[in-house]
């Protein structure tokens, strides 16, 4: 029987508590947003299948706790990551200033084989709050920081409104793919549920 090759890509989302990491993941995977804030304990993950060209990929997105008392749990979750997403709240300068700490912490704990070229993506979240009047971190400042760290891709997002979330995660998936540390899963067509038509495209036009 022919088999369809599927590749697992591990993505880690880091950032201060309350910046919207869980909301971004839920908006992307489930197209849902909740106003009920619940702190992540330790780590949690969701998966989503995406397709580029004729290949099927499974994004495994790990949402980690932002509270420092849980950071010691991070080491095991960081290992084997293909891309790291750094999230801050555009209405909180502290969350932006801490991006550097999260990036350094990840590189130390994950120990990627090529730290200088490991793919990061930065998301400035909550651009919808107060019509944008509450923001304290300008897009220019954020882009300058990303440029200084090797031209990290940058997106301004609203998990609540779904603004730029799909586009950001398409970029994240592509960068994870480029890192090359892929784990291949072979799925025989015989276990497909439903019809055996070709999987739908994720709509990535990059």
From TrEMBL:
InterPro entries xref list: P-loop_NTPase, Small_GTP-bd, Small_GTPase
Gene3D superfamilies: P-loop containing nucleotide triphosphate hydrolases (3.40.50.300)
Membrane topology, record value: Lipid-anchor
Keywords: GTP-binding, Lipoprotein, Membrane, Methylation, Nucleotide-binding, Prenylation, Protein transport, Transport
SUPFAM superfamilies noted in UniProt: P-loop containing nucleoside triphosphate hydrolases
Pfam families: Ras
Compartments, as annotated in UniProt: Endomembrane system
Main location, first listed in the record: membrane
PANTHER family linked to this entry: RAB FAMILY, RAS-RELATED PROTEIN RABG3F
Protein name: Ras-related protein Rab7
Organism of provenance: Citrus sinensis (Sweet orange)
């Amino acid at each position: 029987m022919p088999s369809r090759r599927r590749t697992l890509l591990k993505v880690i989302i880091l950032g201060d508590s309350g910046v919207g990491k869980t909301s971004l993941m839920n908006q992307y995977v489930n197209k849902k947003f909740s106003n009920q804030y619940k702190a992540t304990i330790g780590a949690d993950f969701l998966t989503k299948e995406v397709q580029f060209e004729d290949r099927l990929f499974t994004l495994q997105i790990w949402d980690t706790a932002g509270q420092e008392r849980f950071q010691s749990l991070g080491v095991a979750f960081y290992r084997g990551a293909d891309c790291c997403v750094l999230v801050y709240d555009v209405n909180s300068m502290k969350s932006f200033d801490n991006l550097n700490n999260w990036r350094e912490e990840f590189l130390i704990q994950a120990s990627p084989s090529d730290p200088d070229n490991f793919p990061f993506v930065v998301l400035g979240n909550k651009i919808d709050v107060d019509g944008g009047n509450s923001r304290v971190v300008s897009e220019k400042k954020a882009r300058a920081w990303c440029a200084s760290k090797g031209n990290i891709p940058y997106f301004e997002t609203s998990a609540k409104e779904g603004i730029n979330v799909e586009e950001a995660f398409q970029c994240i998936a592509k960068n994870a793919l480029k890192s090359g540390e892929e784990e291949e899963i072979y799925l025989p067509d015989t276990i497909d549920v439903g019809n055996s038509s070709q999987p739908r495209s994720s709509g990535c036009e990059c």
